[in-house]
Amino acid sequence: MAKKILLLAGDFTEDYETMVPFQTLLAVGYEVDAVCPGKKAGDAVRTAIHDFEGEQTYSEKRGHNFTLNADFDGIKREDYTGLLIPGGRAPEYLRLNKDVLEIVKYFFAGNKPVAAVCHGPQILVAADVVKGRSMTAYPAVGPEITAAGGNYVEVPADQAYTDGNLVTSPAWPGHPAWLSQFFRVLGARIEL
Known about the structure:
Blueprint: E1 4-8, E2 13-14, H1 15-27, E3 31-35, E4 44-51, E5 59-67, E6 82-85, H2 90-94, H3 98-109, E7 114-117, H4 121-126, E8 134-135, H5 142-147, E9 151-152, E10 161-163, E11 166-169, H6 175-186
C-alpha cells in the first residue's frame, strides 16, 4: 500500500508551492490527496505565482487552476503518513477553519511528518503548535512565529530547516532542500 500525504490547498495557494511538491511526491510513489475546505474532488483552486523581482517583497500574478483530487469532508486524517502545507494567500483564510486546525493538531500530536513553506506556517501558528519549535517561513511570517512562542530561524530562500517532524522553507526556491528534508523525515528511500 502506498504511503499517503495530505496536501491542504485553497484559493490563491502559491502555484509552485502546490504543484511542484504534489507532482514530485507522486513521481516517487506517494499517494497525495489535495483537498480544500468546502470543495470536492474535481473542483479547482486558483493559484497565485509569487516571484522575487527586486522589489521589497514578492510580486503576485495569477497562476494556474489546480484540480483537487479528494473531498475535504471525506478525508480520514489517520490514513495519512504526512501533511504538506503550501504558502500563498490560502493560509491567511485556511487558518480560520477549525477543521483545518484540528488536522494540524492531529499530525503534531502524533509526531507525524509535516512540511510547510512560505506563508504555510501561519496555519501552524493558528493551530497553536509552534511553541518551543524552531522553524523558518517567509520573513514576514517570522514575527507571528515568535509571538506564538516559536523560534523563527532565518535561512536563505533556497534553503529549508528541520526540527524533528517539521520541515519548513521560506519560499519555493527552497524546494530541493525542503523536499529532500521532508523525504528524510518521511523515511523515504529514493535510489537512483
